[in-house]
Amino acid sequence: MGSPTDANVVRPVGNTEAQVAPTTTRSSVNATLLPNVYLAPMEDVTDPAFRALCKRYGADRVYTEFVNADALVRDIASTTRKLTIHDAERPVAVQIYGREPEAMAEAARIVEQAQPDFIDINFGCPVKKVAGKGAGAGLLRDVPKMLEIARAVVNAVHTPVTAKTRLGWDEADLHPRVNPLNLNRSVSFSGLSVQRSVSASGLSGEAGRESTFIVDLAEALQDCGIQELAIHGRTRSQMYRGEADWTLIGEVRNNPRMHIPIIGNGDVCTPERARECFDRYGVDAVMIGRASFGNPWLFAEIKDALNGRHDDMTSRRYDAPPRSMAEKVAVLKEHVERAIEWCGNDERKGIIHSRRHFAASPVFKGLPDFRQTRIALLRAETVADVFAIMDEIVEKWGND
Ligand SMILES: Cc1cc2nc3c(=O)[nH]c(=O)nc-3n(C[C@H](O)[C@H](O)[C@H](O)COP(=O)(O)O)c2cc1C
After folding, report:
1. Whose CA is nearest to atom 10 of ligand 1?
2. Is 269 a catalytic residue?
């Protein structure tokens, strides 16, 4: 991986005309006849170091961590750094979040200078510091504002704009009802897209028709010009608790009025579950979050299981997944090195940044009498110590 300085951080202003990335439509996605498996956006996780590994093992699209629109507009260095993109990881989406249409549009223009393939809008973050301030999942309670943001961003850039959201705000949104988006004709802004979404919710023409929140929301976002929609199968109230519910994701995908690709997300941890999500719910892509921690080769395992290795047909090349513990540990070591590089060659910072991956990696799951070694691994602060413990693990437990 190159250093942050040789990446496409922010290109000179005035270059916004150039990069119109290929538009994805449902038919173009399906034409590949191959499942698309994406790396979910994750704060503090999906930096260029981790994205590079996921890409190597077959992630068909990677997303940046979410980027605060206001901080981008204010040109905060730690935020603009998140726009670092390397050509090798394309296609890549930069995700932004915020609560004001103007700031989001301005942020999207700034993001476009970094030339991502997609600009994604976060309408799903449940944490208080985001949703509580009316951004992320907070917009699930103010759909007119959400649609205003979607339109403002779409109109501000040439890059395809996608969005990621949840099933709704709380349990009530999971059940069909009349006008689930709470849109009415007296909304203070007007426009074709809103009127159409009002129609979808049964207020005009089909009086009394019931629909679920996410089905109507997806249509409304499509009408705003959103080109793909990722849906995490939980409500905001659920945060990360309970099981992701894919039935409503399938309902959105199978709604005949939907024409844009639908990306399903939530609890996909194995190739078997990924296959089930494609087969049963018909989604155009699955998006993997937590199961990728310390496990970037999961993408290759999923794709191998679904397709066999079709690299040559598709030119979507990826490395075979590591099989032995020693091979897997070698990938984790490489991640540590990349993380340190990403952290400005600050060894301690890079190691702390990688710990989440050691803690969750399936490589170390279920090893007998592993507790003390695990504690030592999660406490180590130098590369020499981390690598020595990893070598010891392979020696002691890696007889495969
Ligand atoms: C540590 C962490 C950070 C996350 N950050 C983001 C984010 O920046 N943007 C976003 O849209 N979702 C974020 N998410 C949610 C994930 O993208 C995904 O929707 C969620 O984890 C469910 O998928 P999974 O079950 O495959 O993990 C985050 C999740 C985790 C665990």
Report:
1. 41
2. no
Q: Judge if 180 and 46 occupy the same domain.
A: yes
Nearest CA to ligand 1 atom 5: 42
What domain range includes position 371? 325-397
Identify the burial level of 317 via C-beta atoms within 10 angstroms of its C-beta, where 0-12 means exposed, 13-18 middle and 19 or more buried.
exposed
Q: Which of 75, 58, 109, 132 is nearest to 309 (CA)?
A: 58
- The structure's pTM equals 0.89
**pLDDT per residue over 269-307, tens digit each?**
999 999 999 999 999 999 999 999 999 999 999 998 987
User: Into how many domains does the chain fold?
Assistant: 2
Indicate whether 296 and 329 sit together in one domain.
no
Q: Residue 109: CB within 6 Å of ligand 1?
A: no
62 Cα to the center of ligand 1, angstroms: 13
List CB contacts of 320: < 8 A, sequence separation 6 or more.
300, 304, 309
Our answer on whether the CB atom of 94 is closer than 6 Å to any ligand 1 atom is no
- Whether ligand 1 lies within 6 angstroms of the CB of 125 is answered as yes
Strand partners, 210: 178
- Which residue, of 256, 274, 307, is where some domain finishes? 307
